[in-house]
Automatic annotation (TrEMBL):
One of the Pfam families matching this protein, by short name: ABC_tran
Signal peptide: none
Record bears the keyword Plastid: no
ABC transporter domain segment(s): 2-230
Annotated PANTHER family: ABC TRANSPORTER, ATP-BINDING PROTEIN
Matching CDD domains: ABC_drug_resistance_like
Family: Belongs to the ABC transporter superfamily.
Keyword tags: ATP-binding, Nucleotide-binding, Transport
Name listed for the protein in its UniProt record: ABC transporter ATP-binding protein
GO molecular function: ATP binding
Record keyword ATP-binding present: yes
UniProt cross-references to PROSITE patterns, sorted A to Z: ABC_TRANSPORTER_1, ABC_TRANSPORTER_2
Database matches in InterPro entries: AAA+_ATPase (IPR003593), ABC_transporter-like_ATP-bd (IPR003439), ABC_transporter-like_CS (IPR017871), P-loop_NTPase (IPR027417)
Amino acid sequence: MLNVHQVSKNFGSFQALRSIDLEFANGVYGLLAPNGAGKTTLIKMLATLLFPSEGEITYNGENITAMDARYRNLLGYLPQQFGYYKNDSPQKYLTYIAALKGMSQAEASPRIAELLKLVALEDVAGKKMKKFSGGMIQRVGIAQAMLNDPKILILDEPTAGLDPKERVRFRNLLTSLARDRIVILSTHIVSDVEPIAGEVIMIKDQRILYKDTVDHLCRRIEGRVFETYVEHDEAETFRSRYLSLSEKQESSRLKIRFLHEGEAMPGWTPVMPNLEDLFIYTYRDGQEQEDKEPAK
Ligand SMILES: Nc1ncnc2c1ncn2[C@@H]1O[C@H](COP(=O)(O)OP(=O)(O)OP(=O)(O)O)[C@@H](O)[C@H]1O
């Protein structure tokens, strides 16, 4: 069990995170927030690349900083951008990283073969990475993070630059990896976490706003999301009154999905909220979300 206890992080006089409490067991956790909210700062603290200004992070009750190399042996980390030589093959790159991690050749060889299979790169194991797609590179990244069979796998914005097919493959891979480890995935892309995260963590105003299942999170705005049709020349007025969540052109009119907190009007269809709706509502511009009410 990985626990964050009352952790704050300051950069000089700027406080990036304040009094964070979190608990992680096996499974996929989606750390979801807009850019700049503090996801990378939290992830770097979990990876011991940054240290809390206050509070502590423990693994099975032991402070991770004090555990030092023992903790890093349990950890797999894929940073936002990982360095590799374009002329290297996945095989060569993974052999190099395994050596850095102190693995013997005898230990590394079968593990690398196993991982290349797991991330479906065995056919291109000897090919130079310069010709690889974004998805293939990310899978090399996952393989290097998995070399030591970590109990905690941390991935910072791993789907940036992936096409939709690659995203699906990536999500499936993470689901299978999370069966017997903690997988923490940071992203600002809702669709990356909605289908796979056991729990979603949302950060706002330097604090943890939510840590809950997708279902429970969506229920927070149940009864407040509607769809209706609006003429084009009425759209501007409509948007100024209600929070537009998504819009779609349908024949000559606009189909608007929106959020309203009062009585419904005739012609509005109530719909089940999704995580994207909650994300837009939570991080809507210029308005403070006073969400102190308990989950329904
Ligand atoms: N070393 C630093 N010195 C000063 N401020 C920092 C430092 N690192 C991060 N910050 C600030 O802390 C806040 C959180 O940054 P962080 O990188 O954690 O956000 P993020 O949610 O991960 O966004 P992104 O996805 O863009 O990295 C930002 O306002 C950022 O400017």
